[in-house]
Design brief:
heterodimer; A: 348 residues; mainly alpha; MetI-like fold; two-stranded antiparallel ribbon; 1% strand; B: 305 residues; 2 domains; 75% helix
Chain lengths: 348, 305
């Protein structure tokens, strides 16, 4: 009788998280089902997700009408003149920079916080508090993104403009980015968008990191503890080290989520398509700009195609980041020697 | 207390700390300090959660009445009935689509597809989940609203949202079916079940609770996301009578408040009410997921041992 390892149990989906890429446990090829009735519809049905991804890309490419904006497409010079679209300049550099700054900074903050949360939950806390805090962290994922946006705009923004940003400027204004002029168009700015994005992606990165840390074989932990290491030493030198690929994958998936967030960011960033002078200045991102501008682009075919090309670039970045994340998790699975350490279905 | 009882949680307990001295004491103190610092991270993360919940409830509840749920929006006043109806219609249809596509694809990936196809399908499923919501919104807008000529409509919104939700249903179905213990298959086939009988009567029943958690979870995600709907379902302050008319949803109402310069007074109240309602629905779904997975875990405990 083969004893099923507890790691074979299905893990219920955690906040915004797909279960790990290839966590299907080793099982015999499903020869019993193959070759039977219904098998003939097989592969095409299994590949529905692939067809959908291809369809999304194809529709966007068709909608762009292959409009060629020339080499200046990659410049930071964007200036749309409705009256004379021939004189307009079409560069997506500012959007890429805005996306990179917001998603990158949010990811740094979210990584630090999520690591702290997941180590707390997995290593330090007893089971009941850790379960309660897990549920609470997951609730954060259940709040609609529009509510994040409106909360940032109404509650956080005045505090940022009146207290936090002047305070930061006085304290660490010598660091590039922290010293420049503030936003002059009301409650908007890069810093606000970064903070909102951070809170939004924390449930995702925390859940993924938690699963990665939980996946470290118990043997390793017990060996560390038996040698006299403290909890923190085990967490740092054993768990974080052996789960590093999973943590890296969590970071990449968090980045993918952050670059794709449109509505909440559009509400707090200010939609100014220029290179930002400081972290306090209004800026824009690819996702928030294409969300914000589509209804005004209706009468300007060129602008419409430009927006579609921003969307294509965004899609390409998101897919590449996602593929890298999947590759990391698969490498981890390939190198893992034990799967028995997950300790049963991990609680949400 | 013997050392044999020292489970991970026991390390760094008060007793050890009192007895320790020198370098070991420093290490144990450091370990505790780190524990408290890590705990502080929860304060940073939970403050926004509670503040948002409090802020939305405090602004929504005083102005809410039965009419909020039953009346049409009139100018900047009235109730949210049309958007509630629209949300239920669109999320309902989207769920049907996501379940149809996701369960079918997950089923075939897990049970029928050759390993190479299954591998490709799983990668694609994760890729689909990685497509930004607004990009899906553009897809729905160009394909359904413009090229198909449907205009802003409930159907276009539901299809776009359904595609947004599909990968979550797909992945949970695949994982749930792949994790059915081998013994179940062997027992069923040994008793003479045909493969499709095994799948339908054994595997699918064991997997069903997990699939349901995936479906609820996808619904919660779909309810909160405005980006796929804004340019596909459009907006409507009247209840719809057919699926081809523009349709309002709760998440889009909240955005409308923000986007409208004159949006103060009662319209603001409507936005808060919409936010409150969608949070309540989403939290309800979350609780359902939690209960389901708890029950499921209990039920499986016997099965897997």
């Amino acid at each position: 009788m083969v004893v099923e390892a507890p790691g074979d149990q299905p893990v219920p989906p955690a906040a915004g998280v797909l279960p790990a890429v290839d966590d299907a446990p080793a099982r015999p090829p499903p020869s019993a089902a193959r070759g039977s009735r219904w098998a003939w519809i097989g592969s095409p049905v299994a590949l529905i997700p692939l067809l959908l991804v291809v369809a999304v890309a194809a529709v966007l490419v068709a909608a762009s009408h292959f409009q060629d904006f020339g080499p200046s497409f990659w410049s930071t010079d964007y200036n749309f003149l409705p009256a004379d679209s021939a004189a307009s300049s079409w560069g997506i550099g500012a959007f890429l920079v805005g996306t990179g700054i917001t998603a990158g900074a949010a990811l740094v903050l979210a990584t630090v916080l999520s690591l702290a949360l997941s180590i707390s939950i997995v290593v330090y806390l007893p089971s009941v508090p850790s379960r309660v805090l897990t549920i609470l962290t997951n609730l954060l994922a259940g709040i609609p993104s529009v509510v994040y946006g409106i909360w940032g705009y109404v509650i956080l923004a005045p505090y940022f403009a009146l207290s936090l940003e002047p305070g930061l400027r006085d304290a660490i204004g010598w660091i590039p980015g922290f010293g420049g002029p503030a936003s002059d168009i009301g409650p908007h700015g890069l810093l606000l968008a970064i903070v909102i994005l951070t809170i939004m992606i924390i449930p995702l990165t925390t859940a993924l990191m938690r699963e990665a840390l939980r996946g470290v074989p118990n043997d390793l932990l017990e060996a560390g503890l038996a040698l006299g290491a403290t909890r923190w030493e085990v967490a740092r030198r054993v768990q974080m080290r052996s789960a590093r690929l999973g943590i890296g994958s969590a970071v990449l998936l968090g980045f993918g989520r952050a670059i794709g967030e449109s509505v909440a960011v559009a509400m707090v960033i200010g939609a100014v398509p220029m290179l930002p002078a400081s972290l306090y200045a209004a800026s824009t991102t690819q996702a928030s700009f294409i969300f914000y501008q589509l209804d005004s682009a209706f009468f300007y075919p060129v602008l419409l195609r430009f927006l579609v090309e921003i969307a294509i670039v965004l899609l390409a970045i998101a897919l590449v980041v996602n593929l890298f994340a999947q590759r990391l998790t698969q490498t981890e699975i390939a190198t893992a020697t034990t799967v028995g350490g997950a300790g049963g279905p991990a609680g949400r | 207390m013997t050392t044999a009882a020292a489970a991970p949680a026991g390390i760094g307990d008060g007793g050890e700390l009192r007895r320790a001295s020198g370098r070991l004491r420093r290490r144990l103190l450091f370990d505790r300090a780190i524990g408290w610092i890590l705990l502080a991270a929860f304060a940073v993360v939970l403050f926004p959660l509670f503040d948002m919940l409090y802020w939305v409830s405090a602004n929504a509840l005083p102005t809410m009445s039965w009419g909020t749920l039953t009346e049409n929006q009139v100018g900047t006043g009235g109730g949210l009935y049309p958007m509630i109806q629209g949300t239920f219609v669109i999320v309902g249809l989207a769920t049907a689509l996501a379940v149809g596509l996701g369960v079918a694809a997950g089923f075939y990936t897990s049970e029928y597809a050759p390993p190479s196809v299954a591998r490709l399908a799983r990668i694609a499923g994760n890729l689909l989940a990685g497509v930004p919501a607004i990009v899906l919104g553009y897809f729905g807008y160009f394909l359904l609203v413009i090229y198909a000529g449907w205009g802003f409509s409930a159907l276009a919104g539901a299809i776009t949202l359904g595609i947004f939700m599909t990968p979550y249903v797909y992945r949970t179905t695949d994982v749930a079916l792949s994790s059915v213990p081998k013994g179940q298959r062997e027992a069923a086939l040994a008793l003479g079940a045909r493969p499709h009988q095994y799948l339908g009567r054994v595997a699918f029943r064991i997997a069903l609770p997990t699939v349901l958690t995936g479906v609820f979870f996808a619904m919660a995600l779909g309810l909160g996301e405005a980006a796929p709907l804004y340019y596909t379902a459009g907006f409507n302050s009247y209840p719809i009578s057919n699926l081809t008319s523009p349709t309002g949803t709760l998440s889009v109402v909240i955005y409308q408040f923000y986007d409208n310069p004159a949006s103060f007074g009662h319209f603001l109240a409507l936005a808060f009410q919409a936010a409150f309602l969608s949070i309540v629905i989403v939290l309800g779904l979350n609780v359902a997921v939690q209960l389901l997975s708890d029950r499921y875990r209990r039920r499986l405990r016997g099965l897997y041992q």
